[in-house]
Amino acid sequence: MTSEIRPVSDADWPGVWPVIHDVIKAEETFPYDPSMPESVARDMWIERPPGLTVVAADGAEILGTAKMGTNRPGPGAHVSTASFMVARQARGRGVGTALCRYAVAWARQQGYASMQFNAVVETNTAAVSLYRREGFQVIGTVPRSFRHPAHGRVGLHVMYLEFDPPS
Fold it and tell me: Which residues, in sequence order, are bridge partners of residue 117?
């Protein structure tokens, strides 16, 4: 992969929106409304501090994007979460792996104790395999909770990675 991962800028949005739109329109991996307007998608995807949204870019081309932050506030604020979207033309090139590693490193650096993904579609085998390679475990599956266009109702995995305790 010959890209850099960096915080998203306003100038990146015209390249980020097509990635998000393509992913949600497919209805295969994210439980987002496929008719979500661009303005709503932007508000949903661009994290506010202390969270972070990044892009993987090859020059001006946006290959993927990730958002990361606190999974739940209050007593659960020590657990982070992240979401990733990779442009169709960049899939299979290591972009998702690089974004996942970036998010995990960011969460560790921010002092989180772990990372949890709340809704990984079980038929998204590329993502499930990637997360397992990076040390995540499936700790539960909510059966038949995602309506996949080709597979019907499939489960959503909760995936979890506990970080090493600080030395």
Answer: 159
CATH of domain 4-162: 3.40.630.30
Domain boundaries, the chain: 4-162
Pairing of strands 4-7, 52-58: antiparallel
User: What one-letter code names the amino acid at 54?
Assistant: V
Q: Please give the angle made by the CA atoms of 61, 1 and 117, to the nearest 5 degrees.
A: 85
pLDDT tens per residue across span 108-158:
999 999 999 999 999 999 999 999 999 999 999 999 999 999 999 999 999
Nearest to 66 by CA among 123, 114, 121, 115: 115
Rounded to two decimals, the pTM is 0.95
The answer to whether 123 and 148 have CB atoms below 8 angstroms apart is yes
